[in-house]
Structure formats: structure tokens, C-alpha cells
Amino acid sequence: MSAFTNHRGTNIRLVNCAKTFANGTQAVVDTSLEIQGGETVVFLGPSGCGKTTLLRLIAGLESPDPGGRVYFDDDDVTARPIERRNVGMVFQSYALFPNMNVEENIAYGLKIHRMPTEQRNQRVDEMLTMMQIAELRDRRINQLSGGQRQRVALARAIAAQPRALLLDEPLTALDALLRERLRIELDLLLHNLGVTSAYVTHDQAEAMAIGDRVAVMNKGAIVQIGEPREIYFRPVSRFVADFIGTMNRVTGNVSGDTLELPGGRIPWQRGGSGRVEILFRPGDVRIANDHDAQLTGTIQEQFFLGDRTRLHVKGIAEALIIVETTEHREFRVGEAIRLRLEPEALLTLKD
Amino acid sequence: MRRRNFYFQLVFTLLVCAFLIVPVFMSIVAGVTENFFYGISSGFTVRWIVKVWELYDHTIFRSMYIAFATLLVTLVLGVPTAYVLAKRQGLLTRLIEEFLVLPVAIPGLAIALALILTYGGFRDFRTSWYFILVGHVLYTLPFMIRSVLAVLSTIDFITLEESAASLGAGFWQRFFGIILPNVRSGIVAGSLTVVTLSIGEFNLTWMLHTPETMTLPVGLADSYASMRLEIGSAYTLVFFVMIIPLLMALQRYGVQRGKRRARVQEEAGPAMAGPGAATPAQGG
Amino acid sequence: MRRRENINLLLMVLPALIVGASFFLLPLARLGIVGGTGPQGMQAYLSVVTTPRYFEALVSTVLLSVGVTAVTLLISGITGLFLERNRFFGRDLLVSMLTFPLAFPGVVVGFMVIMLAGRTGLIGDLTALTTGKRLVFAYSMAGLFTGYIYFSIPRVILNIMAAAEKLDPSLEEAARSLGAGNWHVIKDVILPGLMPALIASGAVCFATSMGAFGTAFTLATDIDVLPIVIYTEFTLLANITSAAALSIVLGLITWATLAACRAFAGTTAAAAG
Fold first, then answer.
1. Taking a C-beta distance cutoff of 8 angstroms, is the pair A164, A197 a contact?
2. Single pTM value for the model
3. Using one digit for the tens of pLDDT, what is the confidence trace for B76-107?
4. Smallest Cβ distance to B167: which of A93, A99, A112?
5. Model confidence pLDDT, tens digit, residues C59-80
6. Is B162 close to A61, i.e. CB distance below 8 A?
7. N or C: chain B end with fewer CB closer than 10 Å?
8. A293: alpha, beta or left, given left = phi > 0 and alpha = psi -120 to 50?
9. Which chain A residues touch C1 with a CB distance below 8 Å?
10. Could you tell me if B142 and B124 are in contact, meaning their C-beta atoms sit under 8 angstroms apart?
């Protein structure tokens, strides 16, 4: 643990917060949410789902509609503007001050809070070391690369020991390789610091990797909030299922204790009868050998993606299903393939 | 074919340049020649320049301090106004932007007339250089505002402000610590424009001046009408000497060329494509 | 939070609003009223059209301004495009020379015209050498025209160069790849691309010419342009009402032209974009 751990992170609570903008759009519908001290919650959703607005409500850049309240621990901060909430914010464009160099940027919040020079310089040094950018101290902002700017933005945000760290798509502006590397570093940093964090992204892989909990949003509302595994394996709605990863959707016929599909049979213990729609992840379908195969189909397309192979298989259901496997062998179009689905991998959804 | 086109255009351009520059040279030469009618052969002299100084030195100083005062006033009035216009895009700001076009549209003569009719009765005011200052500020303020506004529209100052706010900075801290340093190029370009415009302003000043408050252009008109050609030329030479450094600075520090200026033009409206368009719309 | 900010913003803009209201709006309103409260009352505004002297001045001013705008756009178009798209030794010097007269007040421009076409002017010398007759046109409409072109070219050139810089070269390349020659490229790609800038600078050129005073003042021509008439009415004839009324009319015409061009340029830009 570093010297900057907030010993007990701030607990953030939103109570009945909604946000309607002047032109009538309702960006966030009545939402109540609690972020535990030290926890990182990721707001995930398509553009326009309200995740950034929600973040800005926590930050104090927007006020909730009348009736909404925001609490930091027991403090009602609803009426307080951002400059008095002591939050650290990282923007998508980083918003580093072009008229200052790296050191001055990082020191800015400390200056505003009138930290004595001696102490301030020490804190800046610590930040530079922690972010591994000590050699960039005197650089001007326009001389920095994307990854470097990101680190400076982070350093600046956490220098003043904020009660909460708010990140608005901080990795979106970077290229894919850098994003993956920084994702890991960010995850470690947030956990080491122990600061309560709210993170906005539209990238679900990022959300899964970074969040202690993930809140999936759509049309201004949180449709599901939970740990990444839960979101992935037990989505509560079609929207969540479709948004996170790929989902196969097939209709089968229940008769007794089996589910009948065009490509074969699967054991079925959930009762009911007649037509039923089930969903399952491409990675949950196993390629089987002759003894334990349940379903047979034909490979229509195959895509080698490096770390895995994606297969479009026809004949299993009415539509094509997608299968992902990490087996190294080469798959050929037209090849027959045997598959197996464990009953736990099957999902049924209300909507 | 391309070559021929190029040369034709080059010659055309050179002719246009000649049209503009040759009389400038002629007047410079006339200002240092003994006798213009006989040309250079009559010998070089500085006596005309000395004469100009004797007769009109007060106009030169007055133009300078009026320009300086105009600059100060337009900075104090204009920079905050540009910020407000950039921040709030409502009806009121639209209205103000429309009004900013007026000093370009309404002839200086008319503005001067209006001022005289309304404030001419206050004798002390009417006969002081403050009266001229008012005219100059009215005329140059829109240029300062537009120059700063142009820079503001190319930087995402709102996010910069939000990040400063997230670090605890209040309204005024943000304005002086974040906004102002980042619109420096607009302020510089605007300042150069304002000073250049003020020094060369005639239409308004001619109406507003009194014999005690003559500026350089007013003096020029006086010398053209009543003095011999050499004196007028020498006086014009002095004017050129004052104006050249300003114009050179404008070329260097005017709103950045390239992509920035392109966006600036789109967003800031017609008369704003760089120092050129931003200077005398009333130089006639 | 926004409310607090609005108050601060209002405070910021208050000085400018006060100055604007008291030294600009108020006097203009007063001008308008004075124009309509003379012996003729509101009729004074109509007199612009009914009095031959005024009407002639108005017409000649408008015609002059339109002519100047057209010629300036043509000249500046050619030179501006040429300078923007070619880089050669001495180019920057040429640009500086072309934009130098930007800062000249009208009186200096008038003086320049006299240098060129006055009684001892350069052009007179040249024509005397070649044809034996001295051509002196500084004090006629031609001289006025020349002067107005003189101060218009630098401004418009800068505008055009700026607009030319932002033209997308790939449009031209696409046209060329489809077989378009120089003439077609100019007609179908470059001119439409420059149109908003041409309209905008044309409008400003027109407005400046309409309100130009110093040049005509120095050249003291027989042909009176409207600003000169206004001046004479006010200072020599003490005819305040007419001067005021004429000023308002002049202001309205220029403002209306600018507004119309802005609206038109807006739609052109939208169509082109």
C-alpha cells in the first residue's frame, strides 16, 4: 500500500437523482446508487445512455433535478459545486492546461488549496514517481504523447487526495495496444490507492477488467449492477446480454426433460413445455468428441482471431450460432462439428 | 500550359503590387527631396521632415496616447465580453453579437454625428481628447472581441475550466489563471489590430476633433489641403514609419494561419478571417 | 451553481454593456429621432429619394460601391489564389506589399491616388511620354474608383487567401482524376468552395465603400458621394436633420446588405458543406 491510501474511502450515495436538460432531454432517470468506500464502479453503456451525465452529477458539474440528493459519507453535497467537493476528475481529453508545464499542472490543485511550497513540491515529486513520469517534470503539454498525458492527468487528479476519483473514458483516446497496457496499470493504481472511484466507459472489456462492480446503463437508467462475473454470466435482460459480449439466441422445444434443437438434444431441468428461447455465450459451447456430443452441425465460416477461433456453425439452430474455442487446430469450412452445452450455461430471460 | 498560366498570374500580381506600392515609394521619395517637381536630382533633404515635426508633433503624440488608451479600454471591456459570449450561447448573446457588427456597418461619419448630437452639449467633454477616445473605442471594440472570441472557439475552454474547477479553482481563479493565459494569442492579435486601427482612424476623428485635439490622420488631411506636396509627403512618411512595425507584428502574431484560421472563419463570421479582414472596414 | 455563475458573467460584461448603451445605442437612437423631428418630420427620410441632390449622391455611391466590389473581388481572387497556391522566392514579400496599405486611412489613399494620377502624377508622366497628353484623372470618378480599389484590395486578398488555404485539396484531385481541366476545376470546385468567403468579403468591401469618407474628402471631386453630402449638410449647411436622416439611411443600407449576405452565405455554406 502506498502512502496515499485513503484509509477508509469515501462512501458515495446518490438518492433519487434524475437529470433533465433545458431542452427537454432526460439524460438520467430517477436513480439511487451507493458506491462503497474504496470501491470502483464502472458505468458502462452505449452513447447517450446517461453514464457521463451520472458521473457529472457525482462530480458536481451538473445538479440533479429537484428531489435528488448526493452524499459523500454523511455530507449532503448536493448544493455544492465541483470546486468545493474535493473530487479528482480525469477527462476524456485530459484537459491539461496548455499554459503550464507538467509540474505546474500537477501542482495546480495543491496551489489552489494553498499547500505550503515545501510540502507541495514534495507531493508533486511523489506523484511524478508514482506515475513513473519523473523525467517529464519540465515538459510542456504539447510535447507529451497520449499515454504520457494520461498519466499527468491522473497525477494531477490524485495529487490533492480527493474523496473520490472520477474518470470519464480516460483510455478512449489511446490506441488499442496502449489501452490494454494502461488498463492493467490503472486497475492496480485504483486498488493501491483505495480511493472510491467512478469510471465511465463504453468498452465492456475495460469495464470488466477495472470494475469492482459494473453498472450497465441504457436510456438514462441503470439496468443491472453487479460484479463483472454476474453481469457476464447472469444478465437480467436482453439488453445487457446483447451489450456484454456476444450472445447466441436459439429457440428450442421442451418436451419432458430435454430441450430439442434442430441440431440435437440437451438435458433440461427447468420445467415448462413448448417453445422456449435460450441464450448462451460462444465460449460456453465446447467442442465435443463422440461420447459426450449433444449437438451436431456444420462449420459455415471460421475466423482465426489469434488468441481464439470463432466459428459460425449452421444446423444447430434455425439461425447460425457462434462458437469460440481456444483449440489450436485448424478448422475448415464445411467440416462437421460436434458440440456440447452444459445446462448451467443456458440462460432464459424475461425480456 | 501550366507554366504560362503561372507567369501570367505572376505578372498580374506584380502589376497589382506595383499599383499599391509605387505611390508609397513616390511619396517617401517626395518627402526627402528638395523639390518634388524636379525629382531626386534636386537633392536629398530632411528639412521637410523637420518642418513636419515643428508643425505637427503634437498630432503624433496625441495619436499615440489615444491609441494606447483605446487599447487599455478595449482590453478591459472586450476580453471579458468575449469570454461571456463564448460561454453563453443564448438569445442575449446572439443579440450582442449582432450589435458587434454595427460599427462595421454604420459609417464612422454617422457614429460621430450621433455622438456629437448626444454629447456635444457637454463642452468640457466635447473639446477633450476623451471625446475622440470614445469614438475610437466604439470602433475598435468589436475587433478586440472578435479576435479573442476566435481563439476561444478553437480551444475546448469549457473542459479546461471544468478540470480547473475539479481541482478547486473558483470562477475568478479560472478566468485569470486558465482562460486568460490560453487566449493570449487572441489578445495580442486584437491589441495590434486595435492600435493599428486607432492610429489610422480618420472618418470618426475628423468629425469629433477640435483644433486642440488633432490626431495624425487629421493632421495629414490638413497638410494635404494646405501645405506643399513635400510636407504632405514627409508627414505621410512619418506615418508609414509608425505603421510598418505594427503591420509586421500583425502579420507575425495575427491569428494563426492554417487549420485554426479556417475554423475561426467559420465560427466567427464574415469579417474575421485574420488580421486583414479584421482591420479597417472604414479605412475609406 | 449555474445561477452564481450567471451573476458573475453578468458582472463581467456589465461595463461593456453600459459603455455600449450610453455611447452607442443612445446616440444612434438620438440620431434617428433627430432625423425625424425637423421641420419636415419623418418626411426627411423620404427626402433621400425625393431630393435630386441626395438621390444622385445615393445612387452614385451605390453604383461606385458595387463596381468597386466587383472589380476588387476579381483582382483579389486572381492574385489571392495565385499567392496562396504557389510558393516561390519573394512570395512572402509580395504578400506583405499587398497587405501593407491595410492600415492607411482614406486620406492617405487619396494622397496615393494623387501621386499616381494627379496633376504631377506618375501616370500623367507616362502618358505624356508615350502619347504626348497628360492623363490626369485623380479628381474625377475614375480617381475615386481607383482610390476605393486601392484600399479594398488588401483586405479582400487576405480573406481570400485564408479561405483558399482551407480548401480541401482532395476535391480538386478528385475532379482532375475525372478529367476536369483547369477551367472546370476553377468553375466547379474552387469557386464554389470560395463562395462563402467571396460573399463575406464582398459584403464588407461594399459596406466600407459606402461609408468611405476620407478618400473622397482628399480628392475633393465634383461627384459627391453620400458621406460627403452628409458632411457638407452638417458642417457647412448646419442642416442637422438632413444629415442625421441621411446617416441613418446610409447605415441601414449597409447593415441590410451585410445581414443579407450573412444569411445568404449561411445557406451557401450549408449547401456546399
1. yes
2. 0.81
3. 999 999 999 999 888 878 888 888 878 778 88
4. A112
5. 999 999 999 999 999 999 999 9
6. yes
7. N
8. beta
9. 60, 63, 79, 81
10. no
